[in-house]
User: Fold these one by one.
Assistant:
Number 1:
Amino acid sequence: MKIVILDGRREGDACPVFDILLDALQSREADVQTFRLHDIKMGSCIGCFGCWLKTPGICVEADEGRDIAQAVLRSDTTILIGPVTFGGYSSEIKKAQDRWIPLILPDFGLFHGEVHHKPRYARYPRLIGIGIQSRANDEEAHLFKVLVGRNALNFHAPSYAADVVQATDSEASQHAQIQRILEREDAFPLGKAITSLMPGAVSTDLPADDQESMAPLDRSRRALLLLGSPKIGSPSTSGILGGYVLKQLAGYGWETTPLTLRRNLIKESGQAELLAAAKRADLILLAFPLYIDSLPFLMMKALEVMAGQLDPPSGENPKRLAAIVNNGFPESYQNAPAVAICRRFAVDTGMTWLGGLAMGAGEALFRGQAIEETQRNGPPVVHVRRALDLTGAALANGRAIPDEAIRLIRKTPIPIVPFRLWRRFFIKTANQHWRRGAAANQVGSEAMRAQPYEHDHQSAKTI
Ligand SMILES: Cc1cc2nc3c(=O)[nH]c(=O)nc-3n(C[C@H](O)[C@H](O)[C@H](O)COP(=O)(O)O)c2cc1C
């Protein structure tokens, strides 16, 4: 049995859980390969889709990120282990995981009643997620488990199991828990298990009269837009949506600063730039694409840096946080774990959560064009513009993103057409789009389906 462990523990994370896991695997005579992510130098995904359209099945970046993806695919079970971070993975795991998309095809299909990418290979590993919490938090533990299940769906895992271990528990109880995780098969989080994760309008966080009292802004008006799309070379949908709201805020007299997260965020200089901008801001707006069911590496890293180094809120005016997430699949609810992670970040750092917008089919709707341009010669996005107008007005007045905006941005873009029909149309046109993109690089349909990491799994099994 070939097991790959992606060890996402940070430097100095002392906890016996990892050793307990290794012991449990050794007693099963598993062939274990561990990647200690903290010590591995590799680039983060830049969302170029080269692994689908230029070098099918292989990331264009030649570093250990490729080796990890290959090892994951060839394993019988892949185990992700690390600290539960606002309900998600640590940025260490996220960096490696974002590099998994070469393992699937660009083509979309319907699986379990929702859109996912088609498998590139005939089989994928079972997925296990082990989160470690130094302080118990049930909401984040639940979120973590759902996230692992969503990853399992996206990567066609035959089964999965996920759990959160408390660092303060006795070794005996941790040991028993690890044994159970290794054997268990959890139910895939579909239907209500995922849609119920979507945080609604902020009335759940703030009583209505509290929102009223926030209305007249008696505080400074400085907004920071943190852009988490790593795309270079073409404008991102996140930039289009976030930039539009930032312009609205400027129109309402706010001082606005956009900051696009780049790889220098792993260095002190990039972190200092982020912290200086975040310190000045009264409102932080996150805008990012969904990457493997949660935040892209750089966005996750930014949250970690801010949580670790921003002073805790003092006085009556904590910073406010809102998020705009867009994803590739047409179901906007697939963004639910990402929005929930942003909300948990706000709660954990004492910021006031003002809500999140989740938009499906972001790549297909905008294709790098500004909203005004898309409205003129692209698919219908009037509802998106209205949602952003409502969002800008609410945030400018110190209020939470209204329900109406959250509802509008999730709408099926073609009026009257039911979602199922729109989804069928989406799958067909999007798959043609990928084929054209590959053809432009002289990559034909067959070459697109290359299986560079194909391997005879039966012979690899020792037990
Ligand atoms: C590494 C990677 C992982 C992705 N994972 C998902 C995903 O899990 N679900 C989804 O719906 N879309 C996923 N997408 C698609 C993006 O969310 C989508 O293309 C988005 O519109 C890009 O937004 P941007 O232009 O702001 O970067 C992924 C894209 C990349 C590059």
Number 2:
Amino acid sequence: MVNFDMMVLAGDILELKALEFFRVISRIQKHVVMIHGNHDCHLCLGKIAKKLRFVHYIRQGWVNLEIDGEELTILGVSGIYGKEKVSPLYFEDKHLIRLVSKIQESCTKADIIVSHVPPRYCADFLPKGGRGGLEQLLTLMDLCEPKFWISGHTHVLAVEKRMKSVTINCGYGYIGDFVLIDTKKEKVVISRLFLDVVNAEKDREKDFVFAIRKTKSMRRISKLIANSISVLEEDWGSL
Ligand SMILES: [Mn+2]
């Protein structure tokens, strides 16, 4: 419905449905920048990005892309914050400190930052009121001065201006929330498509939690699914 040059996905993208996601994404043929959330097979995202040259997966770092004649640096922070949680879906202070020193060494400024969890007071409204953003992420805002900060996780579609940045929460993607950004005119449109979703949320949540409980490890289930992807790689070629 919309002509665009780049799609940014702010995490909680595929849960465990790697092949379905691959089928959709492989048809896009435009740059896709994605990070993982706390409901994603992160190994699958990595594999998909390796397979499709226009798809870029960032764990904690950045990519430089030329989009419609414009050089853009997009910095990504995957996962959510959790102290001493040994899981690839969480990051700790030490990961942020590592990222900050990498940025300082290379004097990197970012045009766009994408993180699954929003920074504090930056389009971080919670569905039942209050704010759910992470204070530590504001360091990246000071350092990189992004024009746009895109996040998700808190499920409330919102746009707020903070310092030099327009901060955007893209809300609940699978019920149709989306955001269009014109980087040149610095214009943002938030919108919702009304999709026919029948109580999908509870089942999806249940599937995901059940799969993790069964294998007792997110790392293990990610590996299992990612391995099934390589078995099916030949099928992917014919899609
Ligand atoms: Mn999330």
Number 3:
Amino acid sequence: MTAVSAPTRTKHEVAKAADLPPGARKIVKAGRFQIGVFNVNGQYRAVLNICPHELAPVCKGPVRGTMLPSKVGEYTWGCDGEILSCPWHGWEFNLHDGKSLHDPKCHLKTFEVLVEEGTVFVLV
Ligand code: FES
């Protein structure tokens, strides 16, 4: 039997939690990645700053909501502050899981975020 060790991850400081309030974002370099860290309605989320479509800096795009599935003739807005829209062609991604709204198989790479003693870190 061969023992396989899990790859270790490194903590990279992002910001003081007080400097990253709900709705705020910060794009940081962490190891070989450029990562956008977002405060999504009080929950920290981190995604790779590369759009899977044509490699745009997706984390520079607007964060807003989206139209939810609804009956014909009805328009229901939801997920406010949870949807990242790519600045180049408008593909939309859910910041909670990185998944594209139009194709769940297409997604942004996500990273774990943790808060220790008032400081936000991303694990890479
Ligand atoms: S590069 Fe992001 S939608 Fe085209």
